[in-house]
Amino acid sequence: MAIKGKLKVEGLNRYAENLKRPTPKASGVESWTLSVQRFVVRTCITLLGVTWLILSVETVDASPTKMILVLGDSLSQGFGLAPSEAYPMLLAKKLRTAGLNFQVANASAAGGTTEGGLERLPVHIKRKIDIFILELGINDAFRGVPVDQIQNNLQQIIDKVKARNPGVHVVIAGMQLPNYAADDYVSAFGKMFADLAAKNGAALVPYLLQGVAGAPSLNLSDGIHPNAAGQKVLAETVWHVLEPVALEVGTLSSRAERGTSPAKSGSH
Q1: Which helix (H) or strand (E) holds 103?
Q2: What spatial distance separates the first Cα and last Cα of the chain, rounded to whole Å?
């Protein structure tokens, strides 16, 4: 038993001595293999580092999505059409194509009036609104609502949106009545939208249905509501006014994120 114990101790000692000895140099082939493996590992680490950097830059530079709210009637809702065919959703496509990070919420309803817009508004301004497109009033006029009352309702809508979103940019879509009754009411109604835009520092689309009203090929069979082709014309009409506003909002957002002012960034 003592001999066996002595042999076991000597074996352990020899094993310990082997651990202390330096590892024999690898042969030429083994050395080359190890070098290749080390190179591959370094390359993978470098590529992972570059990938992480790119993703980090994209995350830092990506601006938050801005919100556009459209409050209108059947003209903005896209009466008789798929929601994607209405001009608000066509504007969303234009914004994406222009590289502008905006989401468009269409809160329009067929038969919408200014009074109805006031009632429907609160639920839609719980979120932050960056651009507000207002298209209401024509159904009021068809019902003979006094122009002063229509204008007052529209002003209340604008005031409520601004109260919740002090920095909001407003776009007003103007409408006109047919000239079959060119009286004081018709002229006052047409002038009302420009007055509202001037009072509120809003951008103005002078006439939403420009080039579409009265064109059979651009309207549904009722002769009132734009068809899909007509909605594309409406989108172009609004886009001419909306694009510079969206660019300004995007620029202001980028400056705010960088903590720079127009003066610091070299703008005048």
Answers
A1: strand 102-106
A2: 98
Tell me, yes or no, if 225 is annotated catalytic. yes
Question: Residue with structure tokens 């047919």?
Answer: 178
Active site residue 74: yes
- Of 61, 183, 184, 222, which one is the catalytic site residue? 222
Q: How many residues does the chain have?
A: 268
Write out pLDDT tens, residues 173-209: 999 998 755 689 999 999 999 999 999 999 999 999 9
Classify domain 64-258 by CATH number.
3.40.50.1110
Per the annotation, the verdict on 63 as an active-site residue is no
What is residue 266's three-state secondary structure? Answer: coil
Write the Ramachandran bin of 80: left for phi over 0, alpha for psi from -120 to 50, otherwise beta.
Answer: left
Instruction: Report the C-alpha gap between 257 and 63 in whole angstroms.
Output: 8
- Contact of 58 with 192, CB cutoff 8 Å: no
Q: Considering the entire predicted model, what is its pTM?
A: 0.73
136 exposure class (CB count in 10 Å sphere: 0-12, 13-18, 19+): buried
